[in-house]
């Protein structure tokens, strides 16, 4: 059996190493052994969100797995026969649904399947579900990945209770992605939501973001507001620029004591900061594209070369040898596929 050995504390040393490594194990059929999982984090080892991502991939690929427990710092994953399945993931409390999808989507792109995941849709340190749907999936769509996502209910920290469902078709036409600098902004769009909170929270977030964007750009700004119910209160906003190429995003979450206007401006400022660099890919999308770019090929300019991006490149190259070239230009740079991996 071919084993790929991964040091889980390398580079960024977080959960993303696991998600990418186990997804690639399913795609390639190679077994993977990950040691020193999140060794330098204050709470080392697998957290429930990471474990659930791994269990979802276990189910998809009928894998044999050792070390799949919360707190485990070593994992062995031996994929079996993968086939399209309906995967249900019940994250207790507010574990991040989008991070589970970060593990599941690349693998499902090769196999096909559908999913239903409950947990947190808008939680700190992870892509808000609207970002995943409107920024990440948009970019993946340009590469030929066909994935649909429906947000059934919001879930926030600490109670969760959000629900997302969707499906992915087997990736047939892999289209290389070439995206350097944006040339024109057609419009700005966004979604501002409030859950178990008054409607004015969503409206004030949207208004503040719109006003901030309009101080800098002439393009139309259209931010939807959404008010809904779930297990607990929460709010957030995602805004994105629709350019002549990809979409760049900015997002922020509400917190008790943080005025809605501050939340709206934070999301807008993050987006405006990315746009200043002229790069076609924002700093979060950059790392998320890496596993897909390896197969589709292409070249992108990113607003920031983050540790997450470099670590994801490293994981991909543990499986396939040299694939990427990364050239820094200021805080951003160019990521180029120099040897595309056969899917
Ligand atoms: N505000 C945000 N908007 C969009 N994407 C985000 C945002 N914050 C984080 N992300 C994305 O979420 C992912 C976080 O990966 P990371 O490995 O840090 O997560 P983790 O599993 O929580 O790990 P750990 O707890 O070990 O740090 C990255 O892909 C990053 O781009």
Q: Describe it for me?
A:
It catalyses: a 3'-end 3'-phospho-ribonucleotide-RNA + ATP = a 3'-end 2',3'-cyclophospho-ribonucleotide-RNA + AMP + diphosphate. It is found in: Cytoplasm. This is RNA 3'-terminal phosphate cyclase. One of its GO terms (biological process) is RNA processing. Its EC number is 6.5.1.4. The protein is an alpha/beta fold. Among the domains are: 82 residues, SepF-like protein (Translation Initiation Factor IF3); 95 residues, RNA 3'-terminal phosphate cyclase, insert domain (Dihydrodipicolinate Reductase, domain 2, 2-Layer Sandwich). Helix content is 34%, strand content 29%. Strands 1-2-4-3 form a 4-stranded mixed sheet, with helices on one face. The chain has a 4-stranded mixed sheet with strand order 5-6-8-7. Strands 9-14-16-15 form a 4-stranded mixed sheet, with helices on one face. β10, α5 and β11 form a beta-alpha-beta unit. α4 runs parallel beside α7. It starts with a strand and ends in a 6-residue tail after the last strand. The relative contact order is 0.12. The model has no long low-confidence stretch (mean pLDDT 97). The structure holds adenosine-5'-triphosphate.
């Amino acid at each position: 059996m071919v084993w790929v050995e991964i040091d889980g504390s390398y580079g960024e040393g977080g959960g993303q190493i696991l998600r990418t490594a186990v997804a690639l194990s399913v795609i390639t059929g190679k077994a993977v052994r990950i040691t020193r999982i999140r060794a330098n984090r204050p709470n080392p080892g697998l957290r429930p969100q990471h474990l659930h991502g791994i269990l979802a991939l276990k189910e998809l690929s009928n894998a044999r797995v050792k070390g799949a427990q919360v707190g485990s710092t070593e994992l062995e994953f031996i994929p079996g026969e993968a086939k399209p399945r309906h995967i249900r993931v019940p994250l207790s409390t507010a574990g991040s649904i989008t991070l589970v999808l970060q593990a599941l989507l690349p693998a499902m792109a090769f196999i096909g399947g559908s999913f239903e995941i409950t947990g947190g849709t808008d939680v700190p340190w992870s892509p808000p579900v609207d970002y995943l749907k409107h920024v990440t999936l948009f970019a993946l769509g340009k590469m030929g990945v066909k994935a649909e996502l429906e947000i059934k209910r919001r879930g926030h920290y600490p109670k969760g209770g959000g629900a997302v469902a969707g499906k992915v078709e087997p990736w047939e036409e892999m289209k290389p992605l070439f995206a350097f600098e944006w040339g024109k902004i057609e419009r700005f769009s966004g979604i501002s939501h409030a859950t178990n909170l008054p409607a004015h929270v969503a409206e004030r977030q949207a208004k503040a973001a719109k006003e901030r964007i309009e101080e800098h750009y002439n393009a139309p700004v259209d931010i939807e507001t959404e008010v809904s119910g779930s297990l607990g209160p929460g709010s957030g906003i995602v805004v994105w620029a629709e350019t002549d190429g990809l979409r760049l995003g900015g997002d922020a979450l509400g917190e008790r004591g943080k005025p809605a206007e501050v939340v709206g401006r934070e999301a807008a400022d993050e987006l405006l900061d990315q746009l200043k660099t002229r790069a076609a890919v924002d700093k979060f999308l950059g790392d998320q594209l890496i596993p897909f770019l390896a197969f589709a090929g292409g070249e992108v300019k990113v607003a920031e070369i983050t540790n997450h991006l470099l670590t994801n490149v490293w994981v991909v190259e543990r499986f396939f040898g040299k694939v990427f070239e990364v050239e820094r230009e200021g805080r951003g740079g160019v990521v180029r596929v120099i040897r595309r991996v056969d899917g």
